[in-house]
Backbone:
């Protein structure tokens, strides 16, 4: 049953679906021509993008009218599984089976399709997150070192993020931010995001020149990589918390 909550203007508006209440995040963009709605990758919020001129009430009504769609998207979210021996962890598009022995070294080792580590079981999740972030940094640095020279720019500074709105971003000062969870995605998907941000170092827009350079830089199928992220991107937020 849908329950529409009316709140004080100072409070974040929300939408209640059954026993779950989601905040509604409204983003106004100068170039937006219509209202669009999506669910945060981890299902934590409803996000509505609207033109600058559109009233807030219109955005809220827009989200309310699509409650059934939101519920269907929530139902598709992967269920979080406990990090215990036998659990699977995605890495570079494959699934690794977690193997744990408290008496073994805490160092994470990948052997064929298994992820081995020791130490206390209660610290498995934070240690695996740190390991995945370290792997992501190494992969991103290699990707940037590949794409930047071909784009004719210096290798940019890198920052890891866990942002839920974007997989990557590039600041006007040339800092590239990339979501460490992309280390769990297939290599071509990760590299498509890196290539996208490197292209922004040359063209800070989405003009025809931007798309032409991105097409030259990225060696894979951009449409296929984007489709994978749209279809499977949320699954990268279930493992490791």
Residues:
């Amino acid at each position: 049953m849908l329950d529409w909550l009316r709140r004080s203007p100072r409070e974040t508006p929300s939408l209640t679906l059954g026993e779950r209440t989601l905040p509604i995040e409204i983003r106004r963009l100068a170039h937006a021509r219509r209202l669009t709605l999506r669910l945060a990758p981890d299902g934590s919020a409803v996000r509505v993008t609207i033109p600058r001129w559109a009233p807030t009430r219109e955005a809220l009504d827009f989200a309310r009218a699509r409650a059934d769609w939101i519920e269907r998207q929530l139902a598709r979210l992967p269920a979080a599984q406990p990090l215990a021996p036998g659990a699977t962890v995605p890495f570079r598009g494959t699934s690794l089976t977690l193997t744990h022995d408290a008496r073994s070294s805490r160092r994470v080792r990948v052997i064929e399709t298994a992820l081995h580590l020791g130490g206390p079981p209660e610290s498995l999740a934070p240690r695996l997150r740190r390991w995945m972030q370290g792997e992501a940094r190494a992969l991103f640095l290699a990707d940037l070192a590949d794409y930047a020279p071909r784009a004719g720019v210096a290798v940019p500074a890198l920052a890891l993020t866990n942002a839920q709105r974007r997989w990557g971003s590039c600041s006007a000062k040339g800092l590239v931010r990339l979501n460490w969870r992309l280390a769990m995605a297939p290599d071509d998907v990760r590299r498509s995001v890196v290539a996208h941000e490197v292209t922004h170092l040359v063209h800070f827009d989405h003009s025809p020149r931007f798309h032409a350079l991105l097409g030259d830089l990225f060696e894979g199928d951009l449409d296929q990589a984007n489709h994978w992220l749209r279809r499977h991107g949320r699954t990268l937020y279930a493992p490791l918390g």
User: Anything to note?
Assistant: Residues 1-9 have pLDDT under 50 and may be disordered.
